[in-house]
Fold this sequence. Notes:
heterotrimer; A: mainly alpha; MetI-like fold; 11 helices; 0% strand; globular; B: alpha/beta; eight-stranded mixed beta sheet; four-stranded antiparallel beta sheet; 12 helices; 33% helix
Amino acid sequence: MTEIQADKLAELAGARAPALSGRLMRWRTALGNAWHELRKSRTASIGAVMLVLLFGACIATPWITTYDPIKQNYRERLQPPSEKHLLGTDRMGRDIYSRLLWGGRRLVTIALLAVTFGLCIGIPYGVLSGYFGGKVDTVAMRFVDGLLAFPGLLLYLLIVTLAREWKMEGIYNDMVLIFALGFAFTPEVARLSRGSVLVEKQKEYVEASRAIGDGSLAIALRQILPNIVSPLIVNATVRLGYVILIVAALSFLGLGTPPPTPDWGSDLAAARDYMETAPLIAAFPGLAICYTVLAFNLFGDGLRDILDPRLAER
Amino acid sequence: MAETVLQLDDLTVRFHLRRGDLTAVDGVSFAIERGQTFGLVGESGSGKSVTAKAIMRLIPDPPGEIPRGRVLFEGSNILDKSDAEMRALRGRRIAMVFQEPMSALNPVFTVCDQISDALRTNLGLSKAEARERVIELLSLVGIPSPQKRLDSYVHEFSGGMRQRVMLAMALSCNPSFLIADEPTTALDVTIQATILELITGMIERLGMSLLFITHNLGVVAHACDRVGVMYASHIVELGDKREIFANPQHPYTVGLLNSIPRLDGQAKYLTPIAGSVCNMMEPPSGCKFHPRCAHAMDVCRREIPRLKEIAPGHLAACHLHDRGTA
Amino acid sequence: MTANGTLLSVKGLTKHFTLHGDIYSKLAGEKTQVLKAVDGIDFHIQRGETLGLVGESGCGKSTTARLVTRLIEPTAGEVTLKGEDLLAFSRGRMKEARKEVQLVFQDPYSSLNPRKTIMHILSRPMEIHGLARSWAEKRERVLELLRRVGLGIEHIDRYPHEFSGGQRQRIAIARALSVDPELVIGDEPVSALDVSIQAQILNLFRELQKEFGLTYLFIAHDLSVIRHISDRVAVMYVGKIVETGPAAALFDKPLHPYTKALLAAVPEADPAKPAPRLTLQGEVSTPIDPPPGCRLCGRCPRESTVCAEIAPPLVDVGDGRQVACHNL
Lengths: 314, 326, 328
């Protein structure tokens, strides 16, 4: 062995267990690669930029709002955009700009939590069902079929109405919303994961893991799971936009967010009466919804393009 | 003097990929005469399949591109032909047989449908006439009870039978030239023997010429007249089959022949070629084989060797043969 | 010095798959069919030797590999590993056995998990069997393994897709070695590789056998590869073993008509040798609901009436050779 090789060997062998730092390094390079890959799809890049702006606004909300979103001011109602009120005021004199920001923050948080909830339940459900197969799989998937057959909107209405009945306020209301939305997302995730697992199960590396003596649970969750993550990510991303749309729709119908909490949907509903006199009040929340859903959709679509051919390249 | 059916002159095929440019075929030249079988041998990544597709003009453009070279089929350059002219050629004068019959044949059509489709488009036969001809063809390729098998679907046949069906389809319009791209690789060795016999028999009977592409030197030794060895997009050796096997002149050919385990006698260890095929996206300078070559010299790192005639009809691209030439 | 003795012994090993028809065929009254993938085979492997198992596709050799490691459960038969009944092993003992018997698979592109680094792939077996505790210990052992199979140590943190087919196969071999096995079963380990790489890997197999005193069950369909690497050979056809014997003897003087046909069909890389030809008629017999009698019935040049009725047993014919044929 040459001196250089000996040094390298010592370095590689002597290196301490990465624990955090090594893994962090790997994440950084992974992120770096991810950025590079992202640039390959125009759609994804545009979506990503839009999302960065969106998330940035959500995070920075406490610092960039100008007024209290629920403070009414009847002397300044229905004003057009001005220096004082960037996007004007609504029928109760509340600053629209601030309302949009706080509303957006809430919506995006709800969407993220709901989708995460759906993934957390759906993925293990689908993966384990798919991996173990047999009767367990059959029964589990019939449950999923049943849930999917249920009209989504009806489910939300049911849960939301119950929440109202039980007089759940504030954060409990939001939690119910998150639960409902997440739960509705679960069957799709479960089905998708199960399908992917069925395909992966046939691959030789799974057999190899069994031949080495790896336990079934370990194989399903540690070996197979990382390989099926791609379509799930794409699905989840698009779903985020969809969830925001649903919450806005529910609020529009008067069933989602109770007033006076800022919400794009309820703002839109309230603006209906003023379409002729002050159309801008409807325009801004509407545009906000469009922008957000578009951002998620573009990013998700672009992501699909990036992830698929790369898999083929391997 | 025998008539040249196919002649490749300096054919080069380049692909423009996201990661960069890949020259899959570089300056390939050889000729096939009427009634001759030419074996194009190479391992994966050598460019042999791309060469075949280039001859049939099946290279997608983009990302593929043929920046230079000529492919002369019966005198005229295929690369200059229009799409319509190519369609007239394919199937009728040049036919191709592929490696995987399951993916090359359409699973939703019956065997009769597929073959008569070719017949009716190319030769303008009527439905009944085509059906008759298909029965003829199926018995020609050795499928038992062709009348009964006519209306079967592809998946109802075994691997060897499917290959025969593909052969029947290829021969249906009496082409003068057949390209077979690894036709026996996916088959069991006993079936392989029958298909090889079939192909060589057909070629002789119908007076066709054959370009046989494979990585299996054993198959080449028995099915071909002349051999071209490809490595990393170049032809490194070219010549009569007996010459090449008895007297290989390029280190790669020598290495390849030494790597093959023999059926008789038993060497304790084989003499493999060191290393592995170069990265075609970033090929080494000079001769692409030099990093693996035991005889590499300085000049090998600098210049790509050209094909030179070592003996009549036997060419090799190696600087070892430069000595003695001015 | 390798101790002699039988490492693995198999008797009457059988695997039948019932093919369930769809509802239409059931309604039509069609019986369910049985696919006899492996139908009562016997063989044994001595410690330190290489048994080559050869046959064409569908003969059941891959299934045999999986039966012997209990990746699939046999329908019937006995498997004896180091004198113990493998099929009666408890879960704990079976896990132990996974250290003693290891597999190398055919497809280098799918037998390594694409999302795990080489370090993980090679250290996971050690982790499972408690062969290395600390990360540093695992690291050292993995580096040693990489060196032993001829891969650069800088590859340790890379992913499978960064390697060529031959290199991946080396990694697969390293994985099998990581638990210090006694028996390594190669299920067509070189079939997916280019000829020049194949030669490298075959040499590697030989070197490792010498160095670690390994015993091999080498499965392949390529006769030249089998000839090269095996001490003894068993020939399979449609779920049955038709001939066994020492490699040199079997190849020089094949006794069973199928073995003869296989050898005659191999195209040798020498134009002076005879051209490949087929001495059997027809297509490969089906393993689904096979008729009684010899599997080669209907294709064999040496057939007689008894062949269709009674399946010939595998009998000793001296010199360590066995053949299953009525008409020798």
